[in-house]
Specification:
Blueprint: H1 3-6, H2 23-35, E1 46-51, E2 53-55, E3 58-62, E4 68-70, E5 77-79, E6 87-91, H3 96-103
Parallel strand pairs: 1-6
Antiparallel strand pairs: 2-3, 3-4, 5-6
This protein binds zinc ion.
């Protein structure tokens, strides 16, 4: 699951109403619609880099504020709709399809993946 497949236009709009928005911008439209508030972004506001990971078959990224969003390798950036820290640049694996394929046979709840250098990646080390 990627942002463009999750953050869909509401039923009151045509199904293709949000096709003009890049995947990272759809979460902003989606949040504005569902929370009935406006979100302003600033193209010059850069927050830094975050690793994308897979959680239950969804590509997600975790903001430093504790919020998370469904993201997309087709548009590797994220504006946190909770804290507005700025545009995060997302680090995806070089071969997204290979990572997705490595999880495809697992039940959805077990389709989890972290990049090796991701500091939140769980390990068995103590
Ligand atoms: Zn945030």
């Amino acid at each position: 699951m990627r942002a463009e497949g999750f953050y869909l236009a509401p039923p009151i709009l045509a199904p293709d109403a949000w096709d003009e928005y890049a995947p990272a911008e759809r979460v902003i439209r989606w949040t504005e619609h569902h929370q009935q508030r406006r979100i302003t972004t600033d193209p010059a506001s850069q927050a830094g880099n975050l690793y994308a990971r897979i959680n239950h078959s969804r590509w997600v990224a975790d903001c430093t504020c504790g919020s998370a969003q469904i993201v997309s390798p087709a548009d590797p950036r994220m504006w946190c709709v909770v804290c507005g820290a700025g545009w995060w640049q997302l680090v995806f694996p070089a071969d997204v399809a290979a990572v997705e394929e490595s999880l495809a046979a697992l039940p959805i709840i077990e389709r989890n993946w972290w990049a090796e250098p991701d500091p939140v990646r769980p390990t068995l080390e103590v």
